[in-house]
Design brief:
There is one protein chain. The chain is mainly alpha-helical. The protein contains 4 helices and no strands. Helix 1 (4-24) runs antiparallel to helix 2 (28-50). The radius of gyration is 17 Å and the shape is elongated.
Length: 101
């Protein structure tokens, strides 16, 4: 059996990488991938800690987080497609200055 310390270390690494991507990248697709990495880090923690109790609360909550992450990805990609059609860019600095003309 793998110790819980390894799960926590992998989760911390994924969360750190995701946070670094969100704060440093200007491409909105990279930011979306960073957010997904953060969700995956949370899922690893939920499943790892859920292993040590007889109930399936951690696994069930992890499935809920996966569902919310999938819905978030669909909505975000739809918004990105509309913005790309309108502005021909996915750069966040260009999207920040978006105003109705």
């Amino acid at each position: 059996m793998i110790p819980i310390d390894y799960y926590i270390i992998v989760s911390i690494l994924l969360f750190s990488i995701g946070t670094a991507i969100v704060f440093t990248r200007r491409n909105i697709l990279y930011v979306l991938m960073g957010i997904e990495l953060i969700f995956n880090a949370a899922n690893i923690n939920l499943v790892a800690f859920g292993q040590f109790e007889p109930y399936l609360n951690g696994q069930l909550f992890s499935m809920l987080v996966i569902t919310v992450a999938a819905a978030e990805s669909v909505v975000a990609l739809a918004i990105i497609i509309v913005l790309f059609k309108k502005l021909n860019t996915v750069d966040l600095s260009e999207i920040k200055n978006l105003k109705e003309k």
